[in-house]
Amino acid sequence: MELRELLRPTPVVPVLTLEDPEQAVPVACALAAGGLTVVEVTLRTPTAMESIRRIAREVSGVVVGAGTVTRAAELEAVRRAGARFAVTPGLTPALVDAALDADLPLLPGVMTPSEALAARDRGITTLKLFPAAAAGGVALLRALHSPLPELVFCPTGGIDAGSFRDYLALPNVLCVGGSWVAPKQAVAAGDWGRITQLAREASS
């Protein structure tokens, strides 16, 4: 399935950094109960691969992707773990080649028009603007739309409950990524009801 079709059902992709794989299934279920059925588990902890495996295996109806992929070798590993797509903070030829070899949809991070053009030249038209707020946020995305109307973005970085709707109102924004829908404190406390409520507010 193409990346746009994977991401289209959700306005917000929760970005999860999970310290304990026992949290993976309940947090994914809590987010899905609130209407967010696509999640990104970042490779920032030693247990990230196991968290991806558990969500992919045990939570039907949730699409799990792997985030903070920075090395080509990680693409095949996350695909074997069950990730349906991969997210990178930047764009390199090696990452694009590895994603093609692994037959894994790639959401590469870009920050400039030149990087967006480089991605388009490799056939990638769904991109992550990162770090969105620092790069120029809504104003930058609005400026990119006219010269590059074929590109759509999932901006991530510095987006929260107070700003995400401004991004979603843009014609070239497919969804946004953010961690506010699953705060670390709520995950650590097992406050799944709070996470479901935040997801419901975001998906509405």
Description:
This protein is of the alpha/beta class and 204 residues long. The chain has one domain (3-203): Alpha-Beta Barrel (TIM Barrel). Helices cover 45% and strands 15% of the residues. The two termini are 25 Å apart.
Distance linking N and C termini: 25 Å
Number-wise, the strands total 9
The CATH level-2 architecture is identified as: Alpha-Beta Barrel
**Helix-residue proportion:** 40-55%
Whole-number average pLDDT? 97
Task: Count the domains.
Answer: 1
Count of helical regions: 11
Could you tell me the CATH topology label: TIM Barrel
CATH level-four homologous superfamily name: Aldolase class I
From the alpha-carbon coordinates, what is the Rg to the nearest angstrom? 16 Å
Derived from helix and strand composition plus strand pairing, the structural class reads alpha/beta
Order of helices and strands: HEHEHEHEHEEHEHHEHEHH
Give the uncertain stretches in residue-range form: none
CATH class: Alpha Beta
Strand order of the largest sheet: 5-4-3-2-1-9
What best-fitting shape do the alpha-carbon axes yield? globular
Which band does the percent of strand residues land in? 15-25%
Profile the largest sheet: 6 strands, parallel
Short description:
The chain has eleven helices and nine strands. It has 204 residues and is an alpha/beta fold.
What layout of secondary structure does this protein have?
Elements: H1 3-7, E1 12-16, H2 24-33, E2 38-42, H3 48-58, E3 63-67, H4 72-81, E4 85-87, H5 93-102, E5 106-107, E6 109-110, H6 113-121, E7 126-129, H7 132-135, H8 137-145, E8 152-153, H9 164-168, E9 176-178, H10 184-189, H11 192-203
Parallel strand pairs: 1-2, 1-9, 2-3, 3-4, 4-5, 6-7, 7-8
